[in-house]
Amino acid sequence: MGLFQGTQQNYYTTASSFGNYQTISLKDIINNFEIAYVGEGKIIPKQKRSNIVFFAKRALQELSYDTLKSEKSQEIEISPNLVMALPHDYVNYVKITWKDTSGVERIIYQADKTSNPLSILQDGSYNYLFDSNNNLSTSTDSDTWLDFKASSNATSDTSVDDSGFDTSTSNGGRFGLEPSKAQSNGVFYIDPLKSRIHFSADINGKTVTLKYISDSLATDDEMKVHKFVEEAIYKFIAHSILASSSGVQEYIVARFKKEKFAAVRNAKLRLSNLKIEDLTQVMRGKSKQIKH
Fold it and tell me: Could you tell me the pTM of the whole model?
């Protein structure tokens, strides 16, 4: 029986089904693994399905970080509070940009000399204040963040004078512009405790795009992998089960470790999607002539 289910008319008239054939669900991968790898006379004689499900999810997580195309994005307009909440399935950011009037994305760089520390409330004598449960009373936002938020030019370095000389003793003192600060797109920093992104004042009112990495496990609909990575998932599960099982000979574990490494490498090469025409076009501007 063919793998394509339904009719072509159904496919082309339902936008949500576009491109589904290039992926396979994690449930199907688990079922296929049980058929191909688990059973009498096979490499894994017996294994609980719950263990296979666990290692399949771990495989999907690990491959999402550096192999699968698991990059997501969110676009919002920044309000005057200059704060953006981290997405519900956020793991790490790829880059943060704001768009200009032409729709071109301008990269916003991370600030390295500010943060939003936990602000402890004090009385007029600088003594700590406590709540009714004898816990420290804290403020929602720190003075550091409030001053950073109020700054009209947060991207500039106050240790650099008008002549371009860096007067900061911590930087050793140098003449010239600091390359990491030679931009006017604004800056941001992430508060991991409150799961918020804080922007400098010059981002106010701009449309910002956050591109981030997820682990592909947030919802059932996301637990799919590209068919180029299917074999890598099988090898990952097999190696993980064999490596965590007692009584398995070491050479078998080492063999599947090598096979997992090779399968992941092949998946990366396939997903890189390099085309000879694109490479040729890029190399046209080089001094060496490329024949094609």
Answer: 0.75
